[in-house]
């Protein structure tokens, strides 16, 4: 629902987007048409009956009043009660008029109480406070000019102050409750937005990790075919088969990652399961796949029993590091060293010489290493990368491996 729908005044939403909290609190611009819900009609009816009831009680107690004054009281009192239906459209104007009239006319008091309550609910204290103060001030001429037969001026003033402050306090409490509800609603919406943003980032990282590896393999084999058109028929057939296989796997991985975007139907209790995630046990298969693509990769693995969560992060780090080596140092030997111990953490180092270049330089956005750094930091670890004086490019990462393994990490 946008601001225009809430306000019901035909104003474009973007023009009063800043006023959305005030609209939800019931605040509308003075004089603007307000759309009432069923609940609003019920509340307005109750307010009208309350104003009419107070007016009727005051009328029954009016004795020994001149006929002209009594007629004026009845007419103005009836009009004031009818004006209660305008309290949402002109809360400030209604409160000011009824407050001024109540400084002498007694039958306006019921509508005045309702108007003070309304302005306390629908307007901030900087507006409602001075109006209530004016209501307290107008009690002075009323007590002085309209003495009561059955009570003293002090008692009448105390009764009037009690009515005004009670109506005002009641309105302040309702406004504070609405502000609390609005704040909680905003917090819930912010939490939902943050959850959606985190899920989008997770899916983006997953798509980058999966597809960058597959597409780089495709480019590598296609480049070999392009630059070696005179290769033996057997090699060409193997390269074409590798391209077909990696294209099929890329499409399969893409379908699995996009499947995370699907939501459960309304009322379903079980969430959509995530795609199967690789672990440290899948690292030898990844290295073997890179070797079949022509890379010279050496793996030194000394952490076979690592838990699932840090093992998954380490697998992605090695996968991206091998993809970068394939892009920027094709043909150079790559050394992957993985070690770890429970309570001390998991360490990985991917090292390859600089200078060697594949004939086909693959493009890259430069976001891979940034994503790896964020992945490591989010899991409580760290990642460093850069060149060494020996002319090598090194990616080093450390991930925590707690002594006590939780169900999530197991």
Describe the structure.
It is built from 13 helices and five strands. The protein is an alpha+beta fold and 410 residues long. It folds into two domains: 187 residues, no CATH class; 132 residues, Heat Shock Protein 90. A five-stranded mixed β-sheet has the order 1-2-3-5-4, with helices on one face. A hairpin with a 3-residue loop joins strand 2 and strand 3. Helix 6 runs parallel beside helix 9. It holds the Pfam family DUF7134. GO terms for molecular function: ATP binding; phosphorelay sensor kinase activity; protein dimerization activity. It catalyses: ATP + protein L-histidine = ADP + protein N-phospho-L-histidine.
Please describe the biggest sheet, giving its number of strands, its sense, and whether it closes into a barrel.
5 strands, mixed
Order of helices and strands: HHHHHHHHHHHEHEEHEE
Strand order of the largest sheet: 1-2-3-5-4
| Helix vs. strand class | alpha+beta
The count of domains is 2
The count of strands amounts to 5
- State the share of residues found in helices, binned by percent: 55-70%
User: Which parts are unreliable, with pLDDT below 50 for 5 consecutive residues or more?
Assistant: 1-20, 263-273
What is the average of the pLDDT values?
76
End-to-end Cα distance, whole Å, is 45 Å
What's the multimeric state?
A: single chain
Rg over C-alpha atoms, rounded to the nearest angstrom: 38 Å
């Amino acid at each position: 629902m946008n601001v225009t729908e809430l306000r019901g005044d035909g104003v474009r939403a973007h023009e009063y987007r800043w006023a959305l909290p005030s609209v939800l609190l019931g605040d509308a611009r003075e004089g603007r048409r307000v759309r009432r819900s069923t609940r609003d009609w019920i509340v307005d009816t109750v307010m009208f009956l309350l104003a009419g009831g107070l007016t009727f009680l005051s009328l029954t107690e009016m004795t020994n009043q001149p006929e002209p004054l009594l007629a004026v009281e009845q007419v103005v009192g009836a009009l004031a009660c009818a004006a209660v239906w305008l309290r949402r459209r002109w809360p400030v104007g209604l409160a000011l008029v009824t407050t001024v009239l109540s400084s002498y006319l007694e039958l306006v008091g019921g509508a005045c109480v309702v108007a003070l309550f309304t302005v306390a609910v629908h307007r901030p204290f900087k507006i409602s406070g001075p109006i209530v103060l004016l209501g307290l001030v107008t009690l002075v001429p009323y007590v002085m000019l309209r003495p009561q037969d059955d009570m003293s001026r002090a008692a009448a003033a105390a009764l009037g102050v009690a009515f005004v402050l009670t109506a005002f306090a009641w309105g302040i409490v309702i406004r504070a409750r609405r502000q609390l509800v609005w704040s909680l609603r905003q917090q819930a919406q912010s939490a939902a937005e943050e959850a959606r943003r985190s899920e989008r980032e997770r899916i983006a990282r997953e798509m980058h990790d999966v597809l960058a590896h597959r597409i780089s393999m495709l480019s590598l084999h296609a480049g070999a075919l392009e630059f070696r058109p005179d290769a033996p028929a057997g090699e060409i057939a193997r390269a074409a088969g590798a391209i077909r296989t990696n294209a099929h796997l890329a499409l399969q991985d893409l379908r699995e990652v996009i499947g995370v975007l699907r939501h459960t139907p309304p009322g379903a209790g079980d969430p959509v399961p995530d795609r199967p995630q690789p672990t440290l046990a899948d690292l030898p298969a990844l290295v073997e796949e890179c070797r079949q693509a022509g890379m010279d990769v050496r793996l030194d693995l000394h952490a076979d029993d690592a838990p699932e969560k840090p093992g998954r992060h380490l697998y992605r780090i090695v996968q991206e590091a091998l993809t970068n080596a394939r892009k920027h140092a094709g043909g150079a030997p790559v050394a992957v060293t993985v070690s770890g111990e429970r309570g001390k953490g998991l360490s990985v180092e991917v090292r390859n010489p600089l200078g060697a270049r594949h004939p086909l330089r693959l493009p890259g956005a430069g976001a891979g290493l940034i994503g790896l750094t964020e992945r490591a930091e989010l899991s409580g670890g760290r990642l460093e990368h850069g060149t060494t004086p020996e002319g090598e490019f090194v990616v080093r990462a450390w991930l925590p491996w707690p002594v006590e393994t939780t169900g999530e990490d197991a």
